[in-house]
Amino acid sequence: MQDKVKAAQKGNDQAFYWLISRYKGKLYNTARYFLNSEAEALEAVHEVTYRAFIHIKRLREPDRFYSWLGRIMYNYCMDVLKRSNRVIPIENIENLEQEDTTTLKLEIGSYMSQLRPDFRKVIILKYFDDLSIEEISEKMSRPEGTVKTWLSRGLGQLKKIMERT
Questions:
Q1: CATH (domain of 65)
Q2: What residues in the chain have per-residue pLDDT under 70?
Q3: What is the pTM of this model?
């Protein structure tokens, strides 16, 4: 994959297309979750693809392409939410994956809506987007220790909330 990234950095459009095609589903799912709108999610994927294409030469570590791309998506979604004064819609957690959603996911979504937004974001990025602590740290521009703390506290709070019901 590093070869494709390096080729894309040198201007190979086919390599860039291959890279984006590989991750477009994950990008869409992330955008769909944060923006809660199919149209806005599609626009986000389009915009992030454009931004990545324009700035791929700035990517210093080709092996971190997905983290870099995810960071662009995360920042774009946060900008859209800030501009529209919206919050992240946790009640639509079933849109995170295209697989069959279960009652458990919906219940967890309602439980998660009671968490602090930072805790909620970290849990979603870790368990729904399958990102590592390091990748989450980069996406959220927070130290890894902070991400670990938020994850631990968020899971602790989630457990307490679930035990109450």
A1: 1.10.1740.10
A2: 85-110, 165
A3: 0.55
